[in-house]
């Protein structure tokens, strides 16, 4: 049950260069200058919450596995997040869509979930396969639905 909740970020988050395991949670009200946080895997119920996006989200250069969750209240300028696979119950939640959703250039596998409250301008999301129970949830539909494998609209009921 580790919990780190600084009101202001430190200059460097070299905190997580070794694994944070077993219910670790990191909450930042402001993003640090550099989020090279996840250079080692975060495993077993790790959650990272940012109220504001960092300038660069090269966070996930190593896999986040086993119930990792990343929550952003605002989208980052660049979502090159998923350059490594997110596996085993990973969830990415954005309250606003990013300008570009080239998120899924690597597969999100095994119950990956992407939640957007508003649709992106372009859903070229699925340039690589989403496999094994991947779910994309949009509160509002996108302009084009030509590319979606699995989609759920929360306002369609």
TrEMBL record:
This is Uncharacterized protein. It comes from Coregonus suidteri. It comes from the Eukaryota.
